Amino acid sequence: MSQFDKFLSKLLNADAVLTFIELEYILSKLGYSEKKKGKISGSRKAYINNKSNHIILLHRPHPRNELKKYVKQYIIDELKKMGLV
């Protein structure tokens, strides 16, 4: 099982803890890159898919690095909408 597969299974498992760094790895492997222009700064992050121009907006968790369950569900919903999971 590759690192991508491990992180993806953590994303899809509601009880597993997924860190923001692991999420960034998943998004990069799926063709998303961080947008660093405009009003996106600090803990606000935007990731854009280079092929479809689909944007995922979220806040970097702090002070802890683990994603909340509702954020994981949002990411899953967005990736399913695009047919990536």
Secondary structure: elements and pairs:
Elements: H1 3-12, H2 20-29, E1 32-35, E2 44-49, E3 55-59, H3 69-81
Antiparallel strand pairs: 1-2, 2-3
Helix pairs in contact: 1-2
Report on this model:
- Helix 1 (3-12) crosses helix 2 (20-29).
- The protein starts with a helix and ends with a helix.
- Strands 1-2-3 form a three-stranded antiparallel beta sheet.
- It has one domain.
- It contains three helices and three strands, in the order H-H-E-E-E-H.
- Helix content is 39%, strand content 18%.
- It is globular, with a radius of gyration of 12 Å.
- It is α+β, with helices and mostly antiparallel strands and 85 residues long.
- Strand 1 and strand 2 (44-49) form a beta hairpin.
- The mean pLDDT is 91.
- The longest helix has 13 residues, at 69-81.
Low-pLDDT ranges: none
SS-derived structural category: alpha+beta
Largest sheet: 3 strands, antiparallel
Q: Roughly how many Å apart are the termini? A: 17 Å
The shape, in one word, is: globular
**Could you state the order of secondary-structure elements as H and E?**
HHEEEH
The tally of domains stands at 1
Query: Order of strands across the biggest sheet?
Result: 1-2-3
Number of helices: 3
State the share of residues found in helices, binned by percent.
25-40%
The share of residues in extended strands comes to 15-25%
Average pLDDT taken over every residue: 91
How many runs of DSSP E, i.e. beta strands? Answer: 3
Using only C-alpha atoms, the radius of gyration works out to: 12 Å
